[in-house]
């Protein structure tokens, strides 16, 4: 009984690494992030990547880079539009313009 109390105190103070080893995973120690927040973050990230692709295209100086950034801009645009569509279907609304 006393050993269990000591073990429990040790587990409380142990670094996450040791708790992960002891329990075989850290799923129970992670706070789940809601799906809608993940989607909003993905939308912000996709928008930022699209903006960066446009900026890089504007600065490209050889044909191979121009071709690459045209491809990249289109890919980013498609991803961004898809994520917006998913958010709309889920009924999500949020501040999408602060891409960080």
From TrEMBL:
InterPro entries on file: DUF2508
Name recorded for this polypeptide: DUF2508 domain-containing protein
């Amino acid at each position: 009984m006393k050993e269990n109390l000591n073990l429990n105190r040790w587990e409380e103070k142990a670094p996450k690494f040791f708790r992960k080893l002891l329990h075989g995973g850290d799923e129970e120690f992670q706070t789940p992030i809601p799906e809608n927040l993940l989607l909003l973050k993905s939308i912000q990230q996709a928008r930022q990547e699209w903006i960066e692709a446009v900026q890089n295209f504007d600065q490209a100086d050889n044909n191979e880079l121009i071709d690459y950034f045209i491809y990249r801009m289109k890919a980013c645009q498609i991803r961004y539009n898809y994520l917006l569509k998913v958010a709309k279907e889920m009924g999500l609304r949020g501040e999408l313009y602060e891409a960080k």
